[in-house]
Amino acid sequence: MATSPCSSSGVSSSSSSGLGADAGLEIRTRSVEQTLVPLVSQITTLINHKDKPKRSDKTLQAIQRVGQAVNLAVGRFVTVGEAIANENHELKEEMNVACIEARRAGETIAQLTDVASLDHPESDSHITIFTDKTGVVKAARLLLSSVTKVLVLADRIVIKQIITSRNKVLATMEQLEKVSSFQEFVQIFSQFGNEMVEFAHLTGDRQNDLKDEKKKARMAASRAVLEKCTMMLLTASKTCLRHPDCESARINKDGVFHRMRLALEQVIEIVTDSRPNGENEMAPISIYSGIKEFKNKVEGLRENLYFLSKENLSTMLEVILEHTEDFTDSAYTSHEHREHILELSKQAKMELEQLVSVWMQAQNQKTKDLMEDLEVAILKTCQCMNELKREVHNAATSLAADLLKYHTDHMVLKALKITGVEGNLEAVAEYTCKLSEQKEQLVEMCRLLRHVSGTEPLEITCIHAEDTFQVTGPQIISAAETLALHPSSKIAKENLEVFCEAWESQLSDMSLLLREINDVFEGRRGEKRVYLSLPRPGKHNANLKALKPVKLDSEEQAKIAKLGLELHLLTSDVDSETEKWEDQENEIVQHGQGMSSMAYSMYLFTRGEGLLKTTQDLFHQAEIFATEGTKLASALHALSDQVHDDEKPLLLLEAEKLISMCKQLQVTAKTSAQGKSATFTKVDACILKTRNVMTLLCQLLPLCCKLLKKNKVGNGCLKPAPPWKEDRIRTGTNARTPERRVETFGIKSLENHVTNMTVLESK
Fold first, then answer.
1. Co-location of 138 and 245 in the same domain
2. What are the pLDDT digits (tens) for 533-589?
3. Which of these, 134, 217, 294, 761, could form a disulfide with 460 (CB 3.0-4.6 Å)?
4. Where is 710: in which H helix or E strand?
């Protein structure tokens, strides 16, 4: 597919000041977004300055400094943009126009803020920020728009590099597919290995830069396929060269090439944000997402009785219940689970009928009794859906646990290897049937797990696992048949080993995936340590007796939702920063991870989810969060004693700021609050102050990493970029999860294989 890099460009962004870039542009990468943040911050400072009758010299000087700083920064930025334009002629015209606009806007802002030397900066004789506020806003908008265009054009170049790299890989693959001599294969495969390493680095950087977690998960899945298929391509091609007349060897090799092409295509679809022939991606709807949407609609009736029709609600439930048939029709669902799911499905229909009846009456006559009846009907309907969700979760996860336990010995794979070496075609045929049965079981397991995965990234991981079992099963069979036909062939034996290892690796990954799915269901975040420090059964009971459990109602949750979402995004940013550190045992990293985990729990509280059930739980969590922040500040002081750098004072200043903010949060969390209004105000204050601490943490982590790297303190900081290291899939939003067991695709292992291919083994 010929794909244009231009299709992925664009940015849409807006600030609280109403400063928005072009509506047709969309920011899709973190690097573009983070480059814009300081500029937006400085411009917002100018726009939002308070108009006072009298302004001190200090204020005027500050305004002028900000204006000059913006202009200087834009000047340096534009210089880089112009250099990029000169190196990329196809984008030169667009880039130069954007650079000219940015430079002009920067100069305008500098002129309007040149106020420190004027006796009367607000007089009409001088056009300044005080006399022409509209002019500043226009210049600011133009500046943001043009800078964003420059960034997006630069991003197109990155996309073009990935497409060019993909095209080189495809061209070399075509040569490998047609090669007939072993010597020629060795030469071309060496080139192919280097091209794959380059492609791996480019796509790995892109994957880490993507903002969309769903795209990031899809990219990780595609790169995992390419990682494993590269070694499969090597052994499958060698086997085909060694046994050119063997049909099963040819089928085995063709399957690898086909899968690699599909994976390469998907990578390009993700980076260019396009689909072949303009198709829209239609992701299958899971039971979890269906129940979540259904409950949101039902609970929305509290606020508005007229925003949807009863037919709409009935249709939504019908779709959910149709999906439950995947469980009730499955041969692998236990009788007990099947009966419970059918009972709950029937109950859900009855509860909805009752809800619709009361709802229709309330539309005609909004009495107190009817509204109370409606509330009861809403609660009973949602409760029934929660029970249905738990039942399908239990059905899927118990099946997965049983299957994974049953298949841990890999007996079928071992038997295929043994019977293949013996040349026992009849036994191989028997065990290939058993492997096909195992494949069907595992594919069904993946389909059911997808329904209960809980997040889009995990859903994509389930789909990837399903595809892997579907494809790898037949490839193992063709590899085993080849070995049975040529039992003395070392390369055929090696080829079967490679495919069996891929199967075993996927089974191992499924165990981790199952644990992540359970963690999401229980409101936990992967393998993060539990920093909740909540009272456990048998502990601190004396403190609990006097506490009256209080939950936020739907109105309060709606008010605090925006703040919670901001906290959610910050936890993603902190997780991204901590994952860059090579030394995961570093004290700063561990405190940062702990604070991120607690902040995420507080975000879940704003949604009425997770382990924090009452406001008292939240306040207790805020205290522990503040304590962890104080410990982090101590670690920062310890770091400052070991480094010698111009930025050391900044580190100390930020550490003191962190201590101050954590003390304020502790005071707020410990302050007593009586009554509903006061309690909500306290909740709002705790979330707000936690958000502020997390914002500071986002700035501190890269600073510490930079200082560690420059001063070579401890075990180092940043991870090297391994060629085919699959990114960890996040739960919820960017949560840190355990490392998957992946076979890292290293160039050394490839070189070893190429070196060993000097002579074909004898029959």
1. no
2. 223 233 333 333 334 445 666 566 666 777 777 788 788 788 878 877 877 778 898
3. 217
4. helix 676-711
How remote is the C-alpha of 611 from its chain's centroid?
22
Residues 363 and 388 in one domain: yes
211 and 331 assigned to the same domain? no
Model pTM? 0.63
- Cβ partners under 8 Å of residue 127, min gap 6: 111, 112, 135
Residue-wise DSSP of 442-494: HHHHHHHHHHT--SHHHHHHHHHHHHHHHHHHHHHHHHHHHHHHSTT-HHHHH
**Long-range contacts for 234-237 (Cβ within 8 Å, ≥24 apart)?**
234/189, 234/750, 234/753, 235/491, 235/494, 235/495, 235/498, 236/479, 236/495, 237/176, 237/179, 237/185, 237/189
Which residues are CB-neighbours of 406 under 8 A, at least 6 positions away? none
Mapped onto helix, strand or coil, the DSSP state of residue 55 is coil
Residue 545 located in a structural domain: no
Show which of 400, 421, 448 is a domain's final residue: 400
**How many structural domains compose the chain?**
4
Clarify whether residues 304 and 396 are in a common domain: yes
Instruction: Give residues with Cβ within 8 angstroms of 98, minimum separation 6.
Output: 81, 146, 147, 149, 150, 153
pLDDT tens by residue, 742-761: 332 322 333 333 333 333 33
The better pLDDT of the pair 412, 721 is held by: 412
Whether residue 136 is contained in a domain is answered as: yes
| Per-residue confidence band for 724, with pLDDT thresholds at 50, 70 and 90 | very low
The pLDDT of 59-81, averaged and rounded, is 79
E strand or H helix that includes residue 60: helix 57-87
Same domain? 306 vs 249: no
Phi and psi angles of residue 469, each rounded to the nearest 5 degrees, phi first: -65, -40
Assess contact for 51 and 130: CB atoms under 8 A: yes
Of the residues 272, 297, 329, the one at which a domain ends: 272
Structural domain span for residue 236: 161-272
Which phi and psi angles does 225 have, rounded to 5°?
-60, -45
**654-686: burial string, b at 16+ Cβ within 10 Å, e else:** bbebbbebbeebbebbeeebeeeeebbebbbbb
